[in-house]
């Protein structure tokens, strides 16, 4: 298949692209910078220059492909529901409109942070911009398209990760200790980036997955956030012990990470596995925390 990928040079994308190519697919990848273009070409992708705001480029590239994987997002955490969300909504509409009437798969990306608790793939995404993005994509199910959304675990981990664990580590070094909210018994679930990349490939290869389907990229068991804090504290060899902070104090310690640090995510994945045959083969979040490169 020829697959158009947005966000192909990002943390997840740079694993999705080689996963697709290694299994015989051709990749057309959006690149907004020279560095991104060079990295994608080095992986064997054909590059098209543009951004998520270049609607004509998005639509022409989608029409020229057998499937679309949409990973790109403007990660402005201070204004997450502002311009980044609006740009994403417009990009999803543009890509889905270009594929309408073809029955081709559009694979969008969402998150599990807002889902909360023990939730199945059939449950709503939990509100906010992620829910709206899913709703936009799924509205095209009746228009001759197969929109599928992969909800990623809060912590997509692995060697080279620059995400939430890195932020927590930086904060701990600055403060001299780690922290957790209240009892820290809220659960953080992860997924290894290579396992996540495999799921994206399996989805575009499986023509039997119906449009309007949400899938969960997550490990079967998470870690209590207090455990995450304790491991980071130990690995950094900090002199102060991890500290509990109240919900009111959380913003002072965690900053923009407050929402994520307090999230409780225990997603189910049985539907995902039944539909795709997806199996986890890489390290778990706990194993990566204990043996990974976060603390080198």
From TrEMBL:
Pfam families per UniProt: Epimerase
Matches recorded under InterPro entries: Epimerase_deHydtase, NAD(P)-bd_dom_sf, NAD(P)-dependent_oxidoreduct
Ranges for domain NAD-dependent epimerase/dehydratase: 3-207
SUPFAM superfamilies attached to this UniProt entry: NAD(P)-binding Rossmann-fold domains
Name the UniProt record assigns to this protein: NAD-dependent epimerase/dehydratase domain-containing protein
Species name: Kwoniella shivajii
